[in-house]
UniProtKB/TrEMBL annotation:
Membrane topology: Lipid-anchor
Coiled-coil regions, chain positions: 76-110, 405-432
NCBIfam families documented for this protein: outer_NodT (TIGR01845)
Main location: membrane
Entry keywords, A to Z: Cell outer membrane, Coiled coil, Lipoprotein, Membrane, Palmitate, Transmembrane, Transmembrane beta strand
A Pfam family matched in the record: OEP
Protein name: Efflux transporter outer membrane subunit
Protein family: Belongs to the outer membrane factor (OMF) (TC 1.B.17) family.
Cellular location(s): Cell outer membrane
């Protein structure tokens, strides 16, 4: 074969007209369907329950995104970092985002020509054929054809169908990225809530252990007084009942704590047997939560951003449906070499080429295109309604958690006063018991009241911590919709 006879530029006169036609049609193309505009929303200037709310300092503390650091707990920070890397629900959401991103790349590729190459050999015969017994060669009825060539095709996006499809896929990808952020925020909030409740249980455990020790001392004192004939046997029985009842409460906390520890293990992507959180007599302080105005939720909540991007995708799909009423124009070109002999295949006499447009239009579909357009328009209306409902739900959540935090704070003030009164009453009744002026039943009653007030005080603190986490999550957790304009930072699953 003479390699000098192979000239790649020999197809230029075939592909050049195709390129010129592509450029001309691209410049003349239009885009069908409505251009996207964000739906109108009823947004108030401020939250109803925000009156008297004290803003946090600094006010932009949530803008960095690592909102859980407001609780100032290094162990909590480490657990959230593990969740961001190893949580399996988060890994599934991340994989879903990668699927949406791949669809965008596929939709973008449809805007460009498809270039393919082919090479092959074909053996064919016409009529009868036989092998020459003397020479072993094929009879003249059998022949071989060698072929090598290139082909290109391009669908001219005259009506913007492909561009609208790309727009819809890009919006779906951004919705998937927002869904990933929403899943991450939800899982982070679940972890922080569980961890804080575990620390509250640790404080309950410490309180009950101290109370058991105090009740044990009271039992010994009562037994000594009984042996001295100062108190009746019923006081000893009452002291024993109180001690054992409190011990049972302390034991009951162990399975509750274990369940929360197991939940945290699953959230960070490990088996419950592989995680152990040591008990600690410290509850993270209740943080001051930076408060946003209602309009900021539109940019700071990922679920709202996802719903809004779904509206954008549905709007673009209307243009795709409208384009079905217009003809599709495909330009194709092919060229190459074909000959019955491979040795001189790549030579000018064996060259072939073809170029031509193809116009396709559906003439009759008995209302199929009209039905698809109506479906696309109805789907858009549905996504708009879902978007508005998501926004309204977000306003409701923030208002709920604001009023919950305020009411719980007021309740905590009264509860602390009740606790102080119960502790003072306990001090007085114990002095009276030592003086022999009251029986042990009176002491036990006041001790139980004091213990219940202490536990209620801890429960209120846990409720306030949980409400603060929910409020931060309802405010978006420091996330911002501008992150959708960039490639989101994705987690990787740890082995």
């Amino acid at each position: 074969m003479n390699s000098s006879s192979l000239h790649p530029s020999s197809l230029n006169h075939v592909l050049r007209p195709l390129a010129v036609a592509m450029l001309t049609l691209s410049l003349a193309a239009c885009t069908l369907g409505p251009d996207y505009q964000r739906p109108d929303l009823p947004v108030a200037s401020e939250f109803k329950q925000a009156e008297g709310w004290k803003p946090a300092t600094p006010a932009d503390a949530l803008q960095r995104g690592e909102w859980w650091r407001l609780y100032g707990d290094a162990e909590l920070d480490a657990l959230v970092a593990r969740l961001n890397v190893s949580n399996q629900n988060l890994a599934a959401a991340e994989a879903q985002f990668r699927q949406a991103r791949a669809l965008v790349r596929g939709a973008r590729s449809q805007l460009f020509p498809i270039l393919s190459g082919n090479a092959g050999v074909t053996r064919s015969a016409q009529g009868g054929s036989r092998s020459d017994s003397t020479s072993g060669s094929l009879a003249s009825g059998v022949g071989e054809t060698y072929e090598a060539g290139l082909s290109a095709s391009w669908e001219a996006d005259i009506w913007g169908r492909l561009r609208r499809n790309l727009e819809a896929n890009r919006a779906n990808m951004q919705a998937s990225a927002a869904d990933l952020a929403a899943a991450r925020l939800s899982l982070q909030a679940e972890l922080v809530q569980t961890y804080l409740q575990l620390r509250v249980i640790d404080e309950h455990q410490r309180l009950l252990d101290q109370t058991v020790e105090a009740y044990a001392r009271s039992l010994r004192l009562t037994e000594n007084q009984y042996r001295a004939g100062i108190v009746p046997r019923s006081d000893v029985s009452q002291a024993q009942t109180q001690l054992k009842s409190t011990q049972a409460q302390a034991i009951d906390l162990k399975w509750q704590r274990a369940q929360m520890e197991h939940a945290i293990a699953v959230l960070v992507g490990v088996a419950p047997s592989e995680l152990e959180i040591a008990e600690r007599a410290h509850i993270p302080a209740l943080p001051a939560v930076p408060l946003a105005v209602p309009s900021q939720l539109l940019e700071r909540r990922p679920d709202i951003a996802s719903a809004e991007r779904q509206v954008m995708a549905a709007n673009a799909n209307i243009g795709v449906a409208e384009a079905a009423w217009y003809p599709d124009l495909t330009l194709s070109a092919s060229g190459g070499y074909r000959n019955s002999s491979f040795s001189d295949l790549f030579s000018v006499p064996n060259r072939f080429w073809s170029l031509g447009p193809q116009l396709a239009l559906t003439l009759l579909d008995f209302g199929g295109r009209r039905a698809e357009l109506e479906r696309a328009e109805a789907s858009y209306d549905q996504t708009v309604a879902n978007y508005r409902q998501t926004v309204l739900d977000s306003f409701r959540e923030v208002e709920n958690y604001l009023v919950q935090l305020r009411v719980l704070e007021e309740e905590a003030v009264v509860q602390r006063e009740a606790l102080e009164a119960a502790q003072e009453s306990l001090r007085l009744i114990e002095n009276q018991y030592r003086a022999g002026t009251v029986d042990f039943l009176s002491v036990a009653t006041v001790q139980t009241t004091a213990l219940n007030n202490q536990r209620t005080n801890l429960t209120l603190l846990g409720d306030r911590l949980t409400a603060s986490v929910l409020l931060i999550a309802a405010l978006g957790g420091g996330w911002d919709a501008q992150q959708l304009e960039q490639a989101p930072v994705l987690s990787t699953t740890a082995p």
